[in-house]
Specification:
Elements: E1 8-9, H1 11-19, H2 21-29, E2 39-40, H3 42-63, H4 68-74, H5 78-90, E3 98-109, E4 112-125, H6 126-132, E5 150-158, H7 166-171, H8 173-185, E6 200-206, E7 214-217, H9 220-243, E8 279-280, H10 281-286, E9 309-310
Helix pairs in contact: 1-2, 1-8, 3-5, 8-9
Bound molecules: iron/sulfur cluster.
Iron/sulfur cluster binds near residues 22, 256, 263, 268 and 274.
Length: about 325
Amino acid sequence: MPLPATFQFSATSLQDYVDCPRRFQLRYTLQIAWPAPQTEPTGEQEHRARLARDFHRLVHQHLLGLPTDALSASARDPDLARWWRAYLAYAPALGDARVIPEFGLSAPLAGHRAVAQYDAVVIRDSQVEAELAPAQGRPQGSPLGPSGSTQFLILDWKTYRRRPSRDWLAGRLQTRLYPLLLVKAGASLTGGRPIRPNQVEMRYWLAEYPDQPESFRYDEATYQADLAYLTDLITEIAARAGEGESGGLLAEVWPLTADRRRCRFCNYRSLCERGKVAGPVDDYLEGDDVEVLDAGEAGPQVDLDWGQVGETVH
Ligand code: SF4
């Protein structure tokens, strides 16, 4: 069953495929709803997901200029209030840079479209960035790109309970797709001037570890490597989707992940005969799928405001 012509590849859907091709097939090509909890207890997962969404909303509203006092008054949950206070302590580090919150970009990739929904992109002069670096937890002397050039900092708010490793974050499809799309499609932010890879940085700000953000500088070599990797990945998915002729559960089964730990937190586990009981939520937060609990990314459950999605035609 070929992918629909309107299908948009996001970091979430690409991550699904990399984690388990069968999950991608069930979720996106067959679009099979299979209600099952991802974790136990289900109430706790929903609670954490709601807090993550609330935190993203508060930060978005703050970056739009809503009064801090009014926003603070709405952060009543203890976890949310702690994250909010940490964000307010961090926010001055953004200085007077131009901050664009919650917007989408899309670009063609391997004959399809790829999309990203950014929590925030900070645009500033590299000299200002150099002065701010120590306050933001980055080692002094780390590369900042060409002096005097405009820098583009992709900020992504994460509410992980446990800190993921740098290697784990580096391997996430979000880390590879978001900077790439900013380079390919971000000229809409600059009045048409192209953005070079060495002007871009991806930074995960971790609400539970606010003084230790995880940053990834981008450069031409990484851009080219990511472009080749993502092109091959999308080509592979599209080819696999195009090979299947019948729909529904009779479609040829795509490979199931060999890592059965992923199945503990997957709603399709009973369909795949990979268990009936969801894994515990605290294990989930340490595991590979922790990202699912975060709001703010373009995925199948998140509606993009397509009026805000920038387009590029090349
Ligand atoms: S239960 Fe396991 S094999 Fe089945 S779709 Fe989910 S991750 Fe893949």
